Amino acid sequence: MQKIIEQIQKLKKERKAIILAHNYQLPEVQDVADYRGDSLELSRIAAKAEAQVIVFCGVHFMAETASILSPEKQVIMPDKNAGCPMANMITASDLRELKNRHPKSVVVAYVNTSAEVKAEVDICCTSTNAAAVVSSFKDAEEIIFVPDKYLADFVSKKTGRRLITWDGYCPTHVKILPEDIIRSIRQHPRAKVIVHPECTPEVIALADEALSTGKTCEYVKKSEAKEFVIGTEVGLVYRLEQDNPGKKFYPASELAVCPNMKRTNLEKVLWSLEEMKDEVRVPDEIGKKAKKAIEAMLSIA
Ligand code: 13P
Ligand code: SF4
């Protein structure tokens, strides 16, 4: 493995590239990355980066977002088949039909959507800023929020706004069951329980906090607690352990694995730098419209 890491570092310099890795990536991929983060943090980093080449270790919509924000940069994915099943649960034509039924509504899309869907919406959001985005539309008669019905439910409870939703969900987060949380609390009575807002409402109701992966990192760092039950994709536990020596982390369910996040490995990172592949690009027209929606989100604190 050491040889591969050295090769990656060498090629990265030659190509003037940076490596971004989502918090769910394999430990060895997180270790080789220049930056780790959640969806919002990575899109901000991608937008500001001076490097001309971005190796994106995550899933397709994340690399696509980076490319939309910086079309002049070369965004490459070590495995372009790493998609997000939730993002595939709604198409642009599905959304157009929904908009036709609610012509006066403001349209919010979770970043876990395709560029074509983003091109149809007023604003994007991530799980970090979803409530702030929805709250920013004080005078909106109706708000469409797609595609995650569970994130929509969470945001609706937080903001008191009724949302028109879609039947999307994350197949990984629904694997975390209320009984997993109940058992974890019994086994670790002193632990704080943090789950992701993509979890079901029943799971969220049992937790102390529902936070994005980036906000979970912040919360854990500041917290006086020494033990945490983590109800999200298991990859986040590696980052939390690294950043917080002395604190203990227990995954709520070992089954919460996103197979797409695990498609990227070091061999593929090296291959992508050698071949400068697979490039992610969005057609200009779609990209321009999607960019407006992403930038609208980025302008909200
Ligand atoms: P975060 O923005 O919290 O990292 O979430 C991304 C994601 O895909 C969660 O499943
Ligand atoms: Fe998509 Fe869920 Fe995987 Fe996140 S964890 S990338 S929402 S399938």
Number of strand segments:
11
Question: Quick one: overall form?
Answer: globular
Q: For this structure, what is the CATH homologous superfamily of the largest domain?
A: NadA-like
Which sheet architecture does the biggest sheet show?
A: 4 strands, parallel
Descriptive account of the structure:
- The chain has helices at 2-15, 27-32, 39-48, 60-69, 92-101, 115-118, 130-135, 149-159, 178-187, 201-206, 213-222, 235-243, 266-275, 284-298, and strands at residues 17-22, 35-37, 53-57, 74-76, 106-110, 123-125, 143-146, 192-195, 209-210, 227-231, 248-251.
- Helix 1 packs parallel to helix 13, helix 3 runs parallel beside helix 4 (60-69) and helix 11 packs parallel to helix 12 (235-243).
- The protein is built from 14 helices and eleven strands.
- It has three domains: 2-83 and 261-280, NadA-like (Rossmann fold, 3-Layer(aba) Sandwich), CATH 3.40.50.10800; 87-169 and 288-300, Rossmann fold; 173-251, 3-Layer(aba) Sandwich (Rossmann fold), CATH 3.40.50.10800.
- It is globular.
- The chain has 301 residues and is an alpha/beta fold.
- Bound molecules: 1,3-dihydroxyacetonephosphate (13P) and iron/sulfur cluster.
- Iron/sulfur cluster (SF4) is lined by residues 59, 84-86, 112, 170-173, 198, 233, 258, 260-261.
